[in-house]
Design a protein that fits this description.
The structure holds two protein chains of two kinds.
Chain A lengths: L1 E12 L6 E8 L6 E11 L1 E8 L5 E7 L5 E12 L5 E3 L21 H9 L1 H6 L1 H15 L1 E2 L10 H7 L1 E2 L1 H14 L4 E8 L6 E2 L3 E8 L3 E5 L11 E7 L2 H4 L2 E5 L5 E10 L1
Helix pairs in contact in A: 1-5, 3-5, 4-5
Chain B lengths: L21 H8 L3 H18 L3 E2 L8 E2 L3 E8 L1 H25 L4 H4 L5 H5 L21 E3 L1 E6 L2 E6 L8 H14 L1 H6 L8 H10 L13 E4 L8 H11 L2 E3 L4 E4 L2 E6 L2 E4 L2 E4 L3 H4 L15 H6 L4 E3 L10 H4 L2 H9 L6 E2 L3 E2 L3 H9 L4 E5 L9 E2 L5 H13 L4 E5 L5 E6 L2 E10 L1 E4 L4 E3 L4 E5 L13 E8 L3
Parallel strand pairs in B: 3-24, 6-14, 7-8, 7-12, 12-13
Antiparallel strand pairs in B: 1-2, 4-21, 5-6, 9-10, 10-11, 15-18, 16-17, 16-18, 19-20, 20-23, 21-22, 23-24
The chains are: A alpha+beta, B alpha+beta.
Chain lengths: 267, 475
């Protein structure tokens, strides 16, 4: 399937910003199951500094906001040819060792709620890792209702789990926390999803990938109760949201920020 | 403490001087001890004047202290030095190959020669370095290999100090002081100079510049956390002597994708940064967001290949004391040769049998924290009271994997000048090593640290140690 994506992210401030740097992880790379046909990033109110591959081979761009401007916008536009792999990304690991994805980060440290969810699927996982993870995905969807506005990008997995509500980011981080708790390497993926009969989306998407013996990395989209297929484009990965976030920044001064996202994913 | 015989580097058992010290001993016997003592006091004034002091952590009343200097040199013969040089060269090359491997394919883990947990549980492992090859392939640009001696031909590596070895300014100032006080000695004896170290450092760092630097002479700067850092004197000293800029984070910014320095005429791009800021504080965008000591975006510029950071971030994994115990294997794995310099036998308390042995023999062992340095938090069994041993035993049982233990080495002695004449004191040696893609350069000399207290085996300046000038003799 060929997906056409236009993603515009705008940060506006109530006063001019003197100095701000933003790290962007918004460029998909051709890999198992996806081929990037064309892709471009256009900046307004900011200047590109460097582009490089980070430690997870995410295409990363450092941009600096133009001094004195009070808005910056990043427009990504491109086409990606996607193939349905039923979520199985495979054995390619890059240079990052598997054990790195077994280590919890501050955002994924499990507490009682996540440990309890993990416990429910422990037996099943011991019998079959794949079945266990499918059950885990279902158990998280049951325990944590999809609801926007209840969590922040900085909310740790356990907090979202114990609140019982969150968005795709929270679902992914809870899945990662529980999988690692059960001894399976897991990672966070940020990307795009073609939704049925919805063109304009409010935010980009995120899901989890778990390393299953014999299969390699397998994706689980808890929020939609599926394994990613040819409607999904993988953009960046990390040990948690923070490492795979589309935008990670640092800004001097205390201007108030407003975020506006316009995203269209179409066939 | 039981009576032990220690190797005396100056005198043979009969009292005759060992060959490297023969000329010095002859000279010394003709000197008036009183005037030497007077010179000793002068040396202290000299150090105070030039301002070599250091800050001691965790002591609120002693902000700045002078490291005591002893006027009797530590002398190493040309042939002794050749062996050390060869051994250090081998070890440093192995360390660089190891770091390159750990941040790339991890062959040594795949080969089963190093247990995975030594890296996966190593707090200094920096994921952000995965897949990163620093300019010129060099990770440890500056190394300070700590050596101790226990006999005529017995040298051991105590620590590798691959992260941020300090103390080179003392090596240089100690020599300067000796040259001023005893010029005649240097005409009598062929002592190899150390004064070219700053120029060698400048050259070595320059050779590690990123491939795309503009101009013929790479721009080098020393990045310091600032005047409150315990080694600030050394930072400014080195910048001054190698003709490099001394900068703090607020002087730097990423401009046009390069790390640049504010000047009165605008920004000037840097090629190499000799940083004395720890990894965690180096870049608030990538590491600790609260750091005011770092440069936002420097890691991005680094990964893009636009700046050299010396030493490379993440080299601290090699300073871990659990890792140290595997150094003989590491040297063999990467060089295909047996290690020339010996490792001190080390018990990893994380291993049950080792822990049992350590607990049973605590009074005879030295126990160190895996991530510790500077002699802080360590136990010297033979010097500890029963109460101290008991308290340490509890610590060991609570967190065994935080500790390693080593036998109490019979460190060699070199005499110091006291009111009662020459008196033996224990010493160690830190030679300074520079690594570039072109060569490994070892300054003929180093920093000799000396435990000033009689019988003490702890030479760290933070624990009351002093220093000596180190003479490597020419052929």
């Amino acid at each position: 399937m060929r997906l056409n994506i236009t993603h515009k992210t705008t940060y506006s401030y109530d006063r001019p910003v003197h100095y701000a740097l933003l790290q962007l992880r918004m460029t998909p790379r051709s890999a198992a199951g996806q081929k990037v046909l064309n892709w471009s990033t256009t900046l307004e109110g900011a200047t590109s500094q460097v582009t490089y591959d980070d430690h997870f081979r995410n295409v990363t761009e450092l941009i600096e906001m133009d001094a004195g401007s009070s808005a910056v916008s990043i427009t990504c536009q491109g086409e990606v040819e996607v193939e349905n792999l039923n979520g199985v990304i495979g054995m390619g690991t890059g240079l990052a060792p598997l054990w790195l994805f077994l280590q919890q980060t501050p955002a994924t440290v499990p507490g009682p709620t996540i440990r309890k969810i993990a416990q429910q699927v422990k037996k099943a996982t011991e019998a079959s890792q794949l079945d266990g993870m499918h059950q885990l995905s279902g158990a998280i969807a049951d325990a944590v209702t999809y609801r926007t506005g209840m969590t922040l990008s900085t909310t740790p997995a356990e907090d979202a789990a114990s609140e019982g509500q969150g968005v795709c980011q929270d679902h992914a981080q809870i899945m990662i926390a529980a999988a690692r708790h059960l001894g399976l390497p897991a990672r966070y993926v940020s990307g795009y999803l073609l939704m049925d009969e919805v063109v304009d989306q409010e935010a980009s998407h995120a899901w989890a990938e778990v390393w299953i013996e014999g299969l390699g990395w397998v994706g689980f989209d808890v929020s939609n109760a599926v394994c990613p297929d040819d409607r999904y484009v993988r953009v960046a990965l990390g040990r948690d949201y923070g490492e795979a976030a589309p935008v990670h920044g640092l800004r001097q001064g205390n201007a108030t920020e407003e975020l506006c996202v316009s995203l269209q994913v179409q066939q | 403490m039981t009576e032990r015989r220690f190797f005396d580097e100056m005198a043979l058992q009969g009292g005759d001087p060992r060959v490297p010290y023969a000329d010095y001993a002859r000279w010394f016997s003709n000197e008036d001890p009183k005037s030497l003592l007077k010179k000793s006091a002068e040396a202290e004034t000299f150090f105070r004047r030039i301002g070599i002091t250091f800050n001691v952590y965790g002591q609120k009343d002693a902000d700045e202290r002078l490291i005591p200097f002893d006027i009797v040199p530590r002398i190493i013969s040309a042939s002794e030095w050749r062996v050390l040089e060869k051994g250090i060269d081998q070890r440093v090359r192995a360390l660089n190959a190891f770091l390159a491997d750990i941040y790339n394919k991890q062959e040594i883990l795949k080969a089963g020669r190093l247990p995975e947990h030594i890296i996966s549980r190593n707090a200094a492992f920096l994921p952000q370095m995965i897949g990163m090859t620093p300019p010129g392939g060099v990770y440890t640009h500056i190394v300070g290999t700590d050596l101790v001696r226990t006999g005529e031909n017995e040298f051991y590596v105590l620590e590798d100090n691959a992260r941020t070895p300090s103390g080179v300014s003392y090596m240089l100032e100690n020599r300067e002081t000796m040259l001023q006080m005893f010029p005649e000695l240097f005409t009598k004896m062929k002592v190899r100079p150390v004064s070219s170290y700053p120029a060698e450092l400048r050259r070595s760092l320059g050779e590690c510049a990123p491939p795309n630097f503009d101009g013929t002479k790479p721009a080098v700067a020393v990045l310091t956390p600032g005047i409150h850092n315990s080694a600030y004197f050394e930072h400014s000293f080195l910048a001054d002597h190698m003709g490099a800029e001394l900068v703090e984070a607020s002087d730097l910014r990423v401009v046009d994708g390069r790390v640049q320095m504010r000047t009165t005429r605008g920004y000037k791009a840097l090629d190499v940064i000799y940083r004395r800021v720890d990894d965690e504080y180096l870049d608030p965008l990538t590491f600790n967001p609260d750091s005011l000591l770092g440069v936002p975006g420097i890691m991005d510029a680094y990964r893009a290949g636009n700046i050299t950071i010396a030493n490379a971030p993440g080299t601290g994994i090699a300073d871990d004391k659990a890792l140290y115990s595997y150094m003989p294997d590491i040297v063999e794995f990467y060089t295909g040769e047996k290690a020339i310099l010996q490792n001190v036998p080390t018990w990893r308390c994380s291993e049950e049998e080792s822990l049992k042995y350590v607990l049973d023999n605590l009074a005879d062992l030295v126990v160190k924290e895996v991530h510790g340095s500077g002699g802080y938090g360590m136990l010297v069994g033979p010097a500890a009271s029963k109460k101290e041993l008991k308290a340490f035993e509890a610590k060991l049982r609570a967190r065994p994997d935080n500790y390693v233990a080593q036998p109490t080495l019979a460190l060699s002695t070199v005499p110091i000048m006291t009111k009662a004449g020459l008196a033996p004191r224990h010493v160690d040696l830190r030679p300074f090593v520079l690594v570039s893609p072109k060569r490994v350069h070892i300054t003929a000399g180093g920093l000799t640290r000396v435990a000033l207290k009689e019988g003490s085996l702890v030479v760290n300046s933070s624990q009351g140690g002093g220093t000596k000038d180190t003479w490597v003799l020419g052929d």
